[in-house]
Amino acid sequence: MMTAYLGGSAFQTVVDNPVTAYRQLVQQYAKNSEGKLVDPKVAVAEANVVFRKNPIAASLSGVLPRLAGVCMKRVPKFGAFIGISFLSGKDGRVGLMEATGASILSAPFINPIRIIEKQQRIQLKTHGKIKSVIEIIRESAEQRFRPLLRGTTPLIAHSLASATLGLVGQPALQSHIQTKLQTSFMLQSSFTNLLASCIVSPIYVMITNPISRLEVIMQTNSISGKAITLREAVKELRLDTSSFGVRGLFRGNGVGIVKAIISLSLFHEGRILYKYVERV
After folding, report:
1. How does pLDDT run across 72-126, given as a tens digit for each residue?
2. Tens of pLDDT along 187-230?
3. Beta carbons of 268 and 171 less than 8 angstroms apart
4. Which of 40, 97, 149, 225 has the fewest Cβ atoms within 10 Å of its own Cβ atom?
5. What is the three-class DSSP state of 37?
């Protein structure tokens, strides 16, 4: 089960990275160089400019930390996820309790990777290149690596929603769809996987998009600068909402839904493929 989860994660990580990077930039550029909030359309336009000028760098930004995170992030999360299931006598079957435990226990391992991934993209707009991992680690080392724990609280909430809807809800929904429709329409596993992801993803993104905004706000400011607290991040999100309404609250929501559908479908396709190969 662990091999299947890790294989699915690696497959999904490589393919969905350009969409992941684009979504972060749309959310990151919510402020201009003077620190003032801008209309979501302006942020989208700036993200488009960055991608047009540096398509390869932008698309590949953060992919190495994310791939490293497949082990450093997923092993603790999936290990806790599966381990709690077996300890509770469910023999690998997972539910809300497993998702909650895994989200809390894995957060200290996941958060540093997510920050490094986001920090790699902060210079794309001004310098046209990604920031090196070594430089990010050196800057954080000057503060005893404390910056690598910024945004842990919203990450736990984000991870819980991801585990509950993505790892528990999606497979259950796919199984239900297959049971109801396959006998009549002979729907293949890949199609029912995509259909289940299309249903789950909008719900997941509506829940997590504001949480993702908090992560971006807290994790994309300068490592050498003053940390943005959760309270300050919430205040900024409220200001964005009061200034631009729902569009301000849900910056990157449309891109997030596309990303979630791609990511969730690829993860489960990879998971099933690796599980099949392992059996063979």
Report:
1. 767 777 777 777 777 776 665 666 677 777 778 888 888 998 899 899 888 888 8
2. 566 777 777 778 878 888 888 889 989 999 999 988 888 899 99
3. yes
4. 225
5. strand
DSSP sequence for the chain: -HHHHHHHHHHHHHHHHHHHHHHHHHHHTTB-TTS-B--HHHHHHHHHHHHHHSHHHHHHTTHHHHHHHHHHTHHHHHHHHHHHHHHTT-TT---HHHHHHHHHHHHHHHHHHHHHHHHTTTTHHHHSSPPPHHHHHHHHHTTTTGGGGTTHHHHHHHHHHHIIIIIIIHHHHHHHHHHHHHHHH---HHHHHHHHHHHHHHHHHHHHHHHHHHHHHHHSS-TTSPPPPHHHHHHHHHHHHHHHTHHHHTTTHHHHHHHHHHHHHHHHHHHHHHHHHHH-
What radius of gyration do the chain's Cα atoms show?
19
Model's pTM, two decimal places? Answer: 0.72
Confidence of residue 14 (pLDDT cuts 50, 70, 90): confident
171: CB partners within 8 A, 6+ apart: 196, 268
Taking residue 135's Cβ as centre, other Cβ atoms within 10 Å add up to 13
Cβ atoms within 10 Å, residue 165: 21
Domains identified in the chain and CATH numbers: 2-279 (1.50.40.10)
Q: pLDDT at position 83, please?
A: 78
Maximal CA-CA distance, the chain: 62
